[in-house]
Amino acid sequence: MPISSASQTSGTALRALADARGFSIGAAVQSGLIADEPVYAETLAREFNMVVAEWEMKMDPIERQRGVLDFTGADAIVAFAAANDMAVRGHALVWHGATPAWVERSNMTRDEAMAYLRTYIHTVVGRYRGRVMAWDVVNEGISDQGGMRRTVWYNLIGEDYIEMAFRWAHEADPDALLFYNDYAAEGMNSKSDAVYELVKGLLERGAPIHGVGLQMHVSLSDFGRFGWLSAEQIAQNIERLGALGLQVHITEMDVRGVSGAGTPELLEQQAQVYYDVLATCLQAEPCTALLTWGFTDRHTWIRPFFGPADAAPLPFDEGYQPKPAYDALAQALTEAGVSD
Ligand code: G3I
User: Fold this and answer.
1) Is the pTM of the predicted complex or chain greater than 0.70?
2) Contacts by 174-178, CB closer than 8 A, 24 or more apart
3) Which among 54, 140, 163, 186 is annotated as catalytic?
4) What is the pLDDT of residues 132-173, one digit of tens each?
């Protein structure tokens, strides 16, 4: 359904709309911003019922120096969530993008690497047992071509590092939902086929995997007539993952293609993408959460990474004011109807 040009929502916060539907709506956060910007913390607590650490629960910030573990940021985020009755997604236990330099340089044997990784996972997951409801156990383990990504963990341990990581995480917190998370695997393509085969194989071997995270870092050009992605493809992908008994989370959504304050046309296109993705998730029983990667254009990873031309990818603007994308999320939640 097209989004309304003017907000038709009742002005109810996203969190209240999501709570009434038993749905998780969240955002990636940074502990320093929670501490330093009151409006950041206030907006988070008002609008979201779930948070995920944008970087502070990864191996590099936690164990930058071997044997010296720093949980300061992660603890602060978990404490903020508890104080505001918010769920926490853990991100990410194993990721080549946040592996400490000492690991990359190490000459660990396979057994030493397995022993280290098992201890690390048990330490981190065990610390937050009962306080982190889901973990991205392995992030981006599939290459863009669809094969196994040749990460340091693949090279040190072999392909079965993924299954081992899931089993170790489950040992540490049997109640946590365990996810495989990746990008550019949201629709129906060779990479999402590879993700499907990976998780299907894990299930067939009895590995404790409960869901797949679709990161949803997209741009306006990915959709539409000449794009590679559509709501229909996302729905089809969610359906096949659900048929395996898995949950799906939209884990890191942002929509590039709008710079600065944006034009009305681009802001509406961006809103339509947010609407289409959330409506697709809400209509699919396996899809139980949508998180944006950050929530205000004031703090987005996109700007330093992609440059100023893509610096307005989120539902709130630089001044924490809701954009049409916010209204679109509210409209999709409103239309989803209250759960019984
Ligand atoms: O702000 C701190 C600063 O206070 C500190 O002194 C400094 C020390 O290194 O770190 C600064 O934090 C940086 C942080 O971003 C906040 O800007 C970290 O260095 C930097 O590593 C971190 O980068 C994060 C990146 O993952 C690597 O962890 C990005 O925020 C984060 O958006 C990005 O997120 C990834 C997902 O995990 C996986 N999917 C792709 C996504 C985007 O790349």
Assistant:
1) yes
2) 175/129, 175/130, 176/90, 176/125, 176/129, 176/132, 176/133, 176/134, 176/135, 177/133, 177/134, 177/135, 177/210, 177/211, 177/247, 178/134, 178/135, 178/137, 178/208, 178/209, 178/210, 178/211
3) 140
4) 999 999 999 999 999 999 999 999 999 999 999 999 999 999
